[in-house]
Amino acid sequence: MQNGNQDVGVAAIQQYLSGVDYPVNKPNLLQHADDEGAPEEVLALLRTLPDSDFSSLDEVTEAVGNH
Questions:
Q1: Spacing of C-alpha 51 from chain mean position
Q2: Cβ proximity of 24 and 54 under 8 Å
Q3: How far is CA 34 from CA 17, 54, 66, in A?
């Protein structure tokens, strides 16, 4: 998936968000990805998400696709 200056695939995002308990807010989402060893490219993309609660992985990937 391409956005402004990153090329991070949805599969990579899904890999690092596996096991998240939904609903989850943005700070906890970032913390989980960081704890799972997500590379900076994935964390940077997640930081662009709106400050809201996400009810599913699909909702996260949809929000990522809108950036």
A1: 12
A2: yes
A3: 9, 17, 22
- 65 vs 19: CA distance, rounded Å: 21
Q: How far apart are CA 22 and CA 4, in angstroms?
A: 28
Cβ-based neighbours of 49, under 8 Å, separated by 6 or more: 26, 29, 60, 63, 64, 67
Structure tokens, 53: 């609660």
Write the single-letter amino acid at 15.
Q
- Helix, strand, coil distribution of the chain in percent, nearest 5: 50, 10, 40
Q: Which of 2, 54, 9, 6 shows the shortest CA–CA distance to 27? A: 54
pLDDT in tens, 8-57: 788 899 999 999 999 999 999 999 999 999 999 999 999 999 999 999 99
